[in-house]
Amino acid sequence: MTATPFRPVLYLKRSCPFCLKVAALLSEVGAFDTVDLRAFWPGDEHEAPIRAALAPHLEKITFPALEVEPGRFIADSDAIVALYAQKAGVDPANLPFYQYVMAGPFRRIREAHVETLELKKRLGEA
Questions:
Q1: Is 20 within 8 Å of 59 (Cβ atoms)?
Q2: Cα–Cα distance between 52 and 111 in angstroms, integer?
Q3: What angle do the packed helices 107-123 and 17-28 form, to 10 degrees?
Q4: Cα angle value 12/24/98 (rounded, 5°)
C-alpha cells in the first residue's frame, strides 16, 4: 500500500487581512492548488474544529497558519508569503495582483481590523 504524499495544510480565517495577503500571493504564483485549504468565517461550524486542530501545535492560534510538513507549522503571513515566493522564484514586489491587493483591499481591511481591536479594547472586550 502506497502512502499518500503530504500536502501542506493552509488554515484561513475568511475575514482576516493577513489571510487575504497569503491567498493573493498563492493565487498569483499558481500555488493555491498545492495546499489543502481549511477556512472559516468567524462563528461558523468550521471554526471550532480548525482551532482545535491548531491548538496543540501553536502557542497562540493566529491566522493564517500553514502546516508545512507533518507537525511543523508557520503562523506568520510574511513567512508564508516568503516561503511560497521563494519556491516560485519571484519577488512579491514584482507581482501586479499581489501588489494591487496589498495597496488596496489588504490595507483597508487591516485598517478596519485595527480599528475594531481598538474599539474592543476600549469597551473591555479584548
A1: no
A2: 28
A3: 160
A4: 150
Residue numbers in the chain where pLDDT is lower than 70: 1, 126
Q: Buried b vs exposed e over 98-121: b needs ≥16 C-beta within 10 Å? A: beebbeeebeebbeeeeeeeeeee
Evaluate whether 65 touches 75 at the Cβ level (below 8 Å): yes
Amino acid at 78: D
Number of neighbouring beta carbons within 10 Å of residue 87: 11
- Cα–Cα distances (Å) from 57 to 31, 51, 67, 123, in that order, read 24, 10, 9, 31
Is 47 within 8 Å of 16 (Cβ atoms)? no
Return the ∠ at Cα 27 (arms to 26 and 31), rounded to 5°. 50
Place of cell 498569483: 28
